[in-house]
């Protein structure tokens, strides 16, 4: 957690350096209008802001990471450039997308124009076959840990709309190196999140050790979900040992278990899951 907070502080410091002495976006709810005709210089400036603020989650090229891909003509939460400006300014409640409060008005307009320009790029070509990917999903036992369109088990992330939430590179990485590709879980009482689905070992002073993923944590308690789906809550004062294993994932790696064709097919199938009927 400490390292994550320090990373957040460094990002804010970089952003403040970009903003310089320019006036920042005004009070919450008062967002600037889109640029009427963004110039090449506007887009270049917006790209620099994007690299500092957005690339960590959305990828350097906007193709997605722990945050949604932005290289699409229409974004789910922002139908137009004004919608992008509103999200950049105010964030998205209940997610790790925070408002960029330290950006100046022109920087907000420029980064929004740059984000919309990403949607004008040619769509990403999926190298796999989605129908075959559905069969890989079933045979690999993904439903034992994931819910998809109402079916499965809620131990891991819900995949019903994963195609609009993640990019192909991130999904492939999550299949072969799951510990390196974790989503973030936002904290409702802090302006940052923490890595989700981290494996934790909790050994109470009395009773058996519990191994599961962290569901929630505060200063005094921690809640885990074990592989059976059971939710367990501990007071930290009652634990003999509490060990976090960030380099370990409860999700198995499919490196060597699925060949390249199967991996491509599974990624293609997941990218078609958009949450729409």
Written description of the protein model:
The chain has 277 residues and is of the alpha+beta class. It has 3 domains: 80 residues, Cytochrome Bc1 Complex, Chain D, domain 2 (Orthogonal Bundle), CATH 1.10.760.10; 74 residues, Orthogonal Bundle (Cytochrome Bc1 Complex, Chain D, domain 2), CATH 1.10.760; 47 residues, SH3 type barrels, CATH 2.30.30. It contains 9 helices and 9 strands. The strands form 3 sheets. A 5-stranded antiparallel β-sheet has the order 8-7-6-5-9, with no helix packed on it. β1 and β2 form a beta hairpin. α2 crosses α5, α4 packs across α5 and α8 packs across α9.
Quickly describe the structure.
One of its GO terms (molecular function) is heme binding. Helix content is 34%, strand content 15%. The protein is of the alpha+beta class and 277 residues long.
Specify the oligomeric state: single chain
Give the termini separation.
38 Å
**Strand percentage, roughly?**
15-25%
CATH architecture of the largest domain: Orthogonal Bundle
Flag low-confidence runs: 1-28
- Could you tell me the radius of gyration in angstroms? 21 Å
Please tag this protein with its features.
single chain, alpha+beta, Cytochrome Bc1 Complex, Chain D, domain 2, SH3 type barrels, 3 domains, two-stranded antiparallel ribbon, 9 helices, 9 strands, transport, heme, iron, signal
């Amino acid at each position: 957690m400490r390292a994550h907070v320090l990373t957040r502080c460094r990002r804010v410091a970089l952003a403040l350096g970009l903003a310089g002495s320019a006036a920042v976006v005004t009070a919450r709810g008062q967002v600037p209008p889109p640029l009427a005709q963004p110039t090449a210089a506007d887009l270049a400036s917006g790209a620099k802001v994007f690299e500092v603020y957005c690339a960590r989650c959305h990828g350097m090229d906007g193709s997605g990471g722990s945050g949604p891909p932005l290289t699409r003509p229409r974004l789910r939460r922002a139908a137009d450039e004004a919608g992008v400006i509103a999200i950049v300014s105010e964030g998205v409640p209940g997610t790790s997308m925070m408002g960029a409060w330290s950006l100046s008005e022109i920087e907000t307009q420029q980064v929004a124009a740059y984000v919309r320009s990403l949607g004008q790029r040619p769509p990403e070509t999926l190298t796999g076959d989605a129908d075959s990917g559905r069969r890989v999903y079933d045979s690999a036992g993904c439903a034992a840990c994931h819910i998809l369109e109402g079916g499965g088990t809620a131990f891991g992330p819900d995949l019903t709309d994963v195609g609009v939430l993640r990019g192909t590179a991130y999904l492939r990485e999550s299949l072969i190196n799951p510990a390196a590709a974790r989503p973030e879980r936002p904290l409702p009482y802090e302006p940052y999140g923490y890595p989700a689905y981290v494996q934790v070992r909790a050994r109470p002073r009395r009773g058996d050790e519990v191994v599961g993923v962290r569901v929630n944590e505060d200063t005094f308690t921690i809640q885990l979900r074990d592989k059976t789906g059971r939710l367990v809550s501990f007071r930290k004062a009652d634990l003999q040992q509490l060990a976090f294993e960030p380099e370990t994932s409860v999700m198995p790696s499919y490196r060597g278990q699925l060949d390249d064709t199967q991996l491509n097919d599974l990624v293609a199938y997941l990218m078609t899951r958009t949450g729409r009927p």
